[in-house]
Amino acid sequence: MRIAKLWSVGLMALVALGAVAVAQGGGGRRGPTSGPASGKGDLQIYFVDVEGGQSTLFVAPGGESLLVDTGSPDPRNPTAPRDASRIAAMCKLAGVTKIDNLLITHYHSDHVGGLPQLTALVPVGRFIDHGINRETADVQGGASTIAGYNAYQKVITDSHAEHLTVKPGDVLPLKAMHVEVVSGDGEVIAKPLKTPLATTGEQNPFCAASPLKDAENTENDRSLGLVITFGKLRIQDLGDLTWNKERGLVCPVDKLGKMDVYIVSHHGLVNSGSPAMVDAIAPRLAIEDNGPRKGGAPTTFDTIEGSSRLKDLWQLHTAEGSDAKHNVADSHIANLAGPDAGNYLKLTARMDGSLAVTNGRTGETVEYPAP
Ligand SMILES: [Zn+2]
After folding, report:
1. CA gyration radius, the chain
2. Which of 123, 148, 205, 212 would bridge 112 by S-S if both were Cys, CB 3.0 to 4.6 A apart?
3. Distance 127 CA to ligand 1 centre (A)
4. HSE of 336, CA atoms in CB hemisphere, 13 A
5. Centre of ligand 1 from the C-alpha of residue 69, in Å
């Protein structure tokens, strides 16, 4: 009961803070602070705090929506499930009454687990995934992966929504965003992306700094990875794609090219986000969906902060297992150590290449002009 009550207070605070966040601008660590926080022609990206899982809501101009992943299941609170309720609140704040596209990167419970509870709260138009689950019960967490996959299959069967399986090289059938699939089911794109916005297909000098690690052979390896182009902006989300699989995208030649926004792979855990990949994409902004004690690894922090074009890294949580030197300033963290209100981060992406990030905890917005 206590948890449920705290949660409902947190939800109200989240919605209230969101209203404040939309209404005001504010100061920040780097970069100017003036200018509009958002406008009708912008792409809005909301990073829901699902405590170290992923759930990222993209809302394009005109309202077309894409939700990437659904956080974890909450069997203890069937009437007010933590992650599904937070995502539903985020949808409400964003003006989304139906999730047009719900993409599942892979079938680990921190990504697909919240789906049945979420779809009971918000209708979905189309489900998108990489195809069948290949993780077996003998790997760690395999049983919950199978359970999450089966629950997802039941939702697809019971719903009248479209179901689409995609593979590397496919472009999602969205109108207002160009979304290319670069990885899925363990495979990656065969050829460099064709884009006028970035140079691709060149030898990557950073590969030698990222020797191979042990193969994982789990659903992480099979994550759907996306590159989103919006106006002059390129945004990368590879789900939990692992270190060795990243190499297929950036070594020996870089098939991705420079990115403006890096949605930090795998919550910032050490088995993803290699220097070979991060230094090649050289993002202007990085946003990490870590939990208090999941992801946000010190080496991941060093890799991102050391990349050549970075203006700012933002975190959903203080990484409590790290020291202050391996966390960003509190102003750039949505949830500090202590009672958790489930605060979000919001990224406003504009066609002209400018960006803004709003911290749902403080309501402050930091502006990043086009390069
Ligand atoms: Zn994950």
Report:
1. 19
2. 148
3. 19
4. 8
5. 9
| Distance of alpha carbon 197 from alpha carbon 210, whole angstroms | 26
Tell me how far the alpha carbon of residue 369 lies from the centroid of ligand 1, in angstroms.
31
**Is this model's pTM higher than 0.85 or not?**
yes
| Percent of residues in the chain assigned helix, strand, coil, to nearest 5 | 25, 25, 50
Q: Distances from the Cα of 304 to the Cαs of 113, 192, 283, 288, 295, in angstroms? A: 28, 23, 8, 10, 13
Task: With CA atoms as reference, report the closest residue to 49 among 99, 14, 93, 100.
Answer: 14
What is the per-residue pLDDT across 46-63, written as a single tens digit (0 to 9) for each?
999 999 999 999 999 999
Residue 224 near residue 247 (C-beta atoms within 8 A): no
pLDDT tens sequence across 116-133: 999 999 999 999 999 999
CA of 35 to the centre of ligand 1 (A): 35
Nearest Cα to Cα of residue 233 among 354, 62, 57, 61: 354
What count of other Cβ atoms lies within 10 Å of the Cβ of residue 103?
Answer: 27
8 Å CB contact between 245 and 186: yes
How many whole angstroms from its chain centre is CA 112?
Answer: 13
